[in-house]
């Protein structure tokens, strides 16, 4: 029998010390447990966890990096069928964006942690990568994208053709 609670999974590459990890784990732990069944899904290793997570399920895929955890992540989504999956950090967001095409009943939400055009200029210094095409289009496949600042939102509208919502 399906629960009346909304099944929400928060996915992160790891639980090493960092802002995205702290924020996402805090939100996952503090959702209304009467309305949500919250799970924190970590691609990385349990031994690397820097945050003490209480009162929610934590699933570690025990993979060294997102690229090595794609199949395990796919199988997790297929098996648990979350109503909502919230992912954070660029490379994991890229994977989950394309999973949204395979799992249309799940709402996929991305939380970006950088102003991407600035980051791209800094990291690539004007060079392009074969993965740029895939990575830049990932936001078209999310149901929602969470921007943590007005600068980030403006960057999305200007550089990634993300529509404004009124």
Description of the structure:
There is one protein chain. The chain is α/β, with parallel strands linked by helices and about 170 residues long. It has one domain (about 5-160): Rossmann fold (3-Layer(aba) Sandwich). Helices cover about 35% and strands about 20% of the residues. Strands 3-2-1-4-5-6 form a six-stranded parallel β-sheet. It is globular and about 40 Å long.
Short description:
This protein has 166 residues and is α/β, with parallel strands linked by helices. The protein is built from 6 helices and 6 strands, in the order βαββαβαβααβα.
So what's the CATH class? Alpha Beta
Report the uncertain regions: none
> So, the CATH homologous superfamily?
Glycogen Phosphorylase B
Number of helices: 6
Q: Which sequence of strands runs across the widest sheet?
A: 3-2-1-4-5-6
Kindly report the average pLDDT value. Answer: 84
The rounded distance between the terminal residues' Cα atoms is 38 Å
What share of the residues does DSSP label as strand, in percent?
15-25%
Q: What fraction, in percent, of the residue positions are helical? A: 25-40%
Computed CA radius of gyration, to the nearest angstrom: 16 Å
Principal-axis shape? globular
The computed structural class is alpha/beta
The CATH architecture name reads: 3-Layer(aba) Sandwich
Organism: Winogradskyella psychrotolerans RS-3
Domain Glycosyltransferase subfamily 4-like N-terminal: 17-164
Protein name: Lipopolysaccharide biosynthesis
GO molecular function: glycosyltransferase activity
């Amino acid at each position: 029998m399906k629960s009346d609670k909304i099944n929400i999974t928060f996915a992160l590459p790891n639980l090493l010390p960092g802002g995205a990890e702290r924020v996402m784990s805090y939100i996952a732990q503090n959702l209304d447990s009467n309305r949500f069944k919250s799970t924190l899904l970590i691609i990385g290793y349990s031994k690397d966890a820097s945050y003490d997570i209480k009162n929610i399920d934590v699933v570690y895929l025990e993979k060294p990096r997102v690229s090595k955890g794609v199949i395990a992540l796919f199988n997790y989504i297929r098996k648990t069928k979350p109503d909502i999956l919230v992912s954070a950090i660029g490379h994991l967001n890229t994977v989950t964006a394309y999973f949204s095409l395979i799992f249309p009943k799940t709402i996929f939400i991305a939380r970006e942690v950088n102003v991407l055009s600035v980051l791209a200029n800094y990291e690539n210094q004007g060079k392009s990568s074969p993965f740029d095409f895939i990575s830049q289009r990932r936001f078209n496949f999310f149901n929602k994208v969470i921007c943590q600042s007005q600068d980030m939102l403006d960057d999305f509208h200007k550089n990634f053709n993300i529509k404004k919502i009124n």
